[in-house]
# Entry
Amino acid sequence: MKSRLLILLVFVGVLGLVGLVALFRAGQRRDEVAAVTVRRQPVRTLRLAPDRHVFRERFYGFVEAAARVEMAFQIDGRIDRLGPSQWTPLKEGDKVEKGSVIARVEPRRFEAALAQARAMQREAEAMGQEANAQIVDAESRLADAEREHRRLQQLFDRGAGNQRGLDKGRMGEEVANAALMQARARLASATAGYNAARAAADLAQVRLDDATLLAPMNALVAEVPIEIGQLVTAGRTAMTLVDIDTVKLVVGVVERKVPLVEVGQTASVQILALDGSAGETGREVSTLTGKISIVPPAADPTTRLFNVEIEIANPDHRLKPGMVGRAGVAVGSAQAFSVPAEAVIREDERCAVFFVTHGRRDGSAPNNKTADSGPPLVARRVVFTPLAEDGDRILAASFPGDLDQLIVEGHTRLEDGQPVRIVDQVARATGDDDDRMPKAP
# Structure
């Protein structure tokens, strides 16, 4: 009886031990199956490395001619020429050289006035010469009369002459002196007439010169609002010229950014109109180099912006007034990470990104392994404040030293610590493109 009970107890103990072993192994299998069946999010990654980046401020504005001159006559008249040639009138877009004729009013009445003034000048000159001759003759007659008067006075003093002769000598001297004064008056009158005639000739010459408009510089014709045969009045614009050998990009700068720009700074300028198909084909827009020439001391009273001028050489005249331009001015640099904007999750003024690292969902070292041969790859969420940004990248000062594999696709569905698998890796992001101008905060 006792032996049967002992055998039964041993049998029950063995069964219990076998059951415990089975339960333990079943638990292990469940853990392994769970570990194997954890879903790993597919992601694409990018290797990040710090590099020196130039901070640039972007400003927008319009191209203007270096000089714009509205030419107008100072006299009234009828237009008889538009341009150096009487047979080929100037039109918009034509080039003119400095000193060449660009317009003329009918000059005959001004030429006649000049001829008349010059004739009066010659007449007055002749009268002056005649007066000079009369003065010489009068001075000679006066000298003779003075000598005769002195001789008669001496005779009278010695008692050899009489009073009548002395009076006659005195009268002769007075007549000769009056004739000299009259001749001098004629000379003065002739001189005044000459001066008046010369002034009239000068005025007539000015009016004749004013009848012709000359180009003050090498330029292009921007506008011709008059026609040959048209009667124009003084002050009305006859032609507008522009100098576009050098142009200026006038950009509006807000008050807080004015201290960032200085005269002499170099600016990179992009004008989309130079590459009209760039936006459609994805080609890079041409970049020109300009220099800040004017930082105004006061803001525009209408826009409240400071109209900063950037000079740009334009020898081929590709830049036209009115084109829209974008200028980038370097305002500083720093060592930073360049993060593609599509990899960033915005959180108000801060940003979040995900990196790939090794570890479990809680971030600690794993005790078990997945179906991969190494520790599982998980996503690690990092929050940072951007240094600067533009439309397609964001600069960050630093990231944890062990993180350099940035998730650029698949991050929108991730949670911190979630297992991931890398399906592709794009090229490493380094360097700085001057044409993409990150904005300083």
